[in-house]
Amino acid sequence: MNIKSIASNDNNTLEICVEGAFGFNLLNEFRDTYKKRTNKENENHYTNYIVNLRSTSSIDSSALGMLLNMKRELEKNDRDIRITHCLPKILKILIICRFDIKFTIE
Amino acid sequence: MFTTRENLNLYLRTSWLAWVVSIITLNLVAVEFSMPTTLVAMMLTIGLWAGSFYRYQKNSVTAPENELNTTDSQTLETLCIATTNQLQTSINHNINPAIESLAQITSVISDGTGLLQSSFVNLASKSDQQLGLLKEILIHLKGGDMENDGLAFDHFARDINVILNNYVDLMVEVSDKSIAAAYKIQDMVKEMDLVFDLLSQVHKLTDQTNLLALNAAIEAARAGEVGRGFSIVADEVRNLSNSSQKLNNRIRNQTSSAKSLLAETSQIIGEIASLDMNVALSARGNMDDMLQKLMEVNQCISSTIDDTTSVAKDIQGDVSHAIMAMQFEDSAIQISKHISSHLQTIQKNMDTVTQEVGSNSDIIDCFRKINARLQEQMESQHHQAVTATSMQEGDIDLF
Q1: CB atoms closer than 10 angstroms to residue B15
Q2: B158–chain A nearest CA distance, Å
Q3: Least confident segment among A29-43, B139-153, B229-243
Q4: Which of B58, B106, B149, B172 is 20 to 30 Å from B75 at the Cα level?
Q5: B264 and B184 in one domain?
């Protein structure tokens, strides 16, 4: 699995770790972490979401699209998304694409 | 002493008394007259010799003057005229070409310096033109205003930056929408799968219906004649369920092909969504480098223009020096004129001599006159030189 999702102890925070190349092949997996395939209303029961890119070797623009779609989805319930532990070259890409304005990057 | 017979005659005339007295004195000495008498006689002899010698010398000086009255004076005159004519011809033969050459030198120098001067002036103006062209380039680069610190290139670079940012934003939006579409397609696929489920259920239903119809037919057969109508109905039901099954299969196939189309579409959208970010990265990185290089180019151009300006000034200075140096022309021409006039003086003097010799039969008078005129000429020349020097000094002041 290229994506690991870890829930925090108090069930408030969901940490999503992406390993290897973050690309189109992770399309469904990535969405599944934050979107439960149920018809229940309170599917987004976490308040904080962290996308941890420590082990991410590269990202392409589909990854950016996935992040934006995640934000759009979670914004409906006013959830907070943080992107953490970016490698320098990935951080560069995120800044060029002005993701530092759309997300909190640490 | 006795160069001519006349001299001899003269000598004899002036010394006869001395001779006579000397002979008497000798006789007296020989006869041994008394001492005082001998002494007186000897002194008288000596006095007479001295006197006669003096008279001879005095008269012999004028003797050559009298010699001119012979036929030799004719030959001398002819000789003088011939010699002076020869000399004049030779002098003119040499001096005339020399004067011509000096005139040539003058005109060559004049023409040469004229050309040089105009060439230098053109050179200076071309150098200024060059500088003007360079400054124009700078104005174009700076966008029309030299005072303004911004480069036209600068604005250009910033515009490109904006365009690049727009491009990046566009790319991100394309990604965003593509991924959203991809998700929708996944959702559609899931819906299709639900349809398949439903179709399976329909299949089951059809199978059950078929079975039921079979059972009905069996029951109808068992009922015999009475069940014949029922068995027809049962057959029809079986037919219907078969048709239904076929339809079901066709729907399943359609749905299958639709699902594979969706898979293909998903693939395509995946490709759209997955753009290589390196393009944007390198483009933006290059922009910063480009701006840096532009700053350097700007610096370089400015300093090059400064250098060129000072070079142009130096050229102006050198050209001024060259033009001043060509004032040598005046000196050279003046010196030529001096030489020329000296040569002409020599010619005039020669003419004077020839004239006098030709028009004067008395050679002695002739040469006296020549002497006098030459003296006059030299004195006037000296006088001219004095005033000329003082004038030259005045000119130098005006320099």
Answers
A1: 18
A2: 16
A3: B139-153
A4: B58
A5: yes
CA distance B161 to A41: 45
Residue B270 distance to chain A (closest CA, Å): 6
- Token pair belonging to B38: 């001998």
> Which CATH number is A3-105 given?
3.30.750.24
Alpha helices in chain B (DSSP H): 5-31, 35-67, 72-142, 152-223, 228-273, 278-325, 328-359, 363-398
Say whether residue B183 is in contact with chain A using an 8 A CB cutoff. yes
* Interface predicted TM-score (ipTM): 0.89
pLDDT tens-place string over residues B189-198: 999 999 999 9
Helices A61-75 + A27-34 axis angle, to 10: 20
pLDDT of A48 above 50 = yes
| Residues 6+ positions from B347 with CB-CB distance below 8 Å | B91, B92, B95
d(Cα B399, Cα B394) in Å, to the nearest integer? 9
Q: Is position B296 within any domain?
A: no
Mutate to test the interface with A, among B179, B271, B284 (most CBs of A within 10 A): B179
Q: How many domains does chain B have?
A: 3
- Kindly identify which residue of chain B lies nearest to residue A95, measuring between CA atoms: B281
Q: Which two tokens stand for residue B347?
A: 């010619």
The one-letter amino acid code at B273 reads: A
